[in-house]
Amino acid sequence: MDKLLIEGGVPLSGEVSISGAKNAALPLICAALLTDRPLTLSNVPHLNDVTTMLRLLVQMGVDVTLDERNSLVLNACGLNRPEAPYDMVKTMRASILTLGPLLARAGRARVSLPGGCAIGARPVDIHIRGLQAMGADICVEHGYILAQAQRLRGARIFCDLVTVTGTENLMMAAALADGTTVIENAAREPEVVDLANCLNAMGAKVSGAGGDIVTVEGVERLAGAEHRIMPDRIETGTFLVAAAVTGGRVRLNGTHCGILDAVVEKLREAGARIDCHRDSIEISADGPLSAVSLRTAPYPAFPTDMQAQFMALNCVARGTGVITETIFENRFMHAQELRRLGADIEISGNTTVVKGVPRLDGATVMATDLRASACLVVAGLVARGETLIDRIYHLDRGYEHIEEKLSQLGARIRRVH
Ligand code: UD1
């Protein structure tokens, strides 16, 4: 199994390009299931989760090719097996995003129920109830969601909790339903807006995305389209934190502050200087940062996917920071690993209190989930001596060439087999 070896203490410096967003790419790939015409996606990140999603679609009968401009062309005219087997869903929960499109286009779907995962139970009841409200006949048997509907019909759906993939699944299903669907308490994440824009380019009638009420007027059929995937705001945020904690000066290209205001604001509060441009962000920091307190919540509030990286920041900051996680019930596993590097962290329920220490010392640590891995990389970059991070397959699910990009910024980091 691959590991990452980092020798900390080098301030990051230089420029790097931010990749297309994983959490936008996955629903956009599923949107191809809604039409028998080609959907062309550019700025697709090279990530294991993207490969898994493509493999899933290929076994459904979707034709996947790369065109001469390195764009992904998906053609679901041969869709013949509307199924997502357990083997694939267990490695990537986002496979649930095939449920809505399959049901809307093929009239039936058999999608494995995702299990719990390291960060929490993560049920999909809101996805299921929403589709049922649209007239789908759904039962769960032998660990599979079996769904059928001649034609879905528009409905008013109130989501009990704000769910990102739930909103996306329902939006895609509603695009081909008979009549108008209104999704209330919808997720407002930029990735939801990116999906809505692509669906509209395909001929859908989605309005209100980015707000908490999304209205979808169903259409008879969708056409093909070309769409450029938005930049990854979590990769952006991770590189910003890495630059700030190492006291570096970095320019991130192909991204912008507008998709991560809450993160930028917290970094400024910590003492980093950030300049926002139309298509790039510059950050610099000198001297120790100040610890920040934050609370995760659905967009536009502070993202749960950046919580772990900010915990690493607080570990080496001046003062004490209190972090409260409100989205997932078990998302502090990185705290234990950070303690192995010498961090002073106390956990009480869904809150951690981190007292900054003058320095972290390198050690062997283990990645437990995707963003926890990113937090360990950030900590390793600032720790004295060598940090060896085990189980980095989590990292490869969501960060494109992370060690290459960090090396480009001067970090001493390499992959060991
Ligand atoms: C998405 C992101 C993930 C991010 C998360 C929260 C993708 C592919 N993944 O995950 O990176 O961490 O949003 O911003 O976009 N819930 C239910 N029932 C449901 C659905 C959700 O109880 O039917 C709960 C979840 O357990 C969780 C909360 O709602 O506590 C939010 O989850 P949700 O927004 O659905 O997360 P994902 O869409 O899975």
Overview of the molecule:
- This protein is of the alpha/beta class.
- It contains 14 helices and 24 strands.
- Strands 22-23-1-24 form a four-stranded mixed beta sheet, covered by helices on one side. The chain has a four-stranded mixed beta sheet with strand order 2-15-17-16. A four-stranded mixed beta sheet has the order 4-5-3-14.
- Helix 1 runs parallel beside helix 7, helix 10 (307-315) packs parallel to helix 12 and helix 11 packs parallel to helix 12.
- It is globular and about 65 Å long.
- The mean pLDDT is 96.
- The chain binds uridine-diphosphate-N-acetylglucosamine (UD1).
- Uridine-diphosphate-N-acetylglucosamine binds at residues 23, 26, 93-94, 120-127, 161, 163-166, 191, 304-305, 327-328.
What is the mean predicted local confidence, pLDDT? 96
Instruction: List segments where confidence is low: pLDDT < 50 over at least 5 consecutive residues.
Output: none
β-strand number: 24
Distance between the termini: 6 Å
Give the helix proportion (percent range): 25-40%
If helices are DSSP runs of H or I spanning 4 or more residues, what is the number of helices? 14
Q: How are the strands ordered across the major sheet? A: 22-23-1-24
Alpha-beta classification: alpha/beta
The bound ligands are: uridine-diphosphate-N-acetylglucosamine
Radius of gyration: 21 Å
Strand percentage, roughly? 15-25%
Biggest sheet descriptor: 4 strands, mixed
Overall form: globular
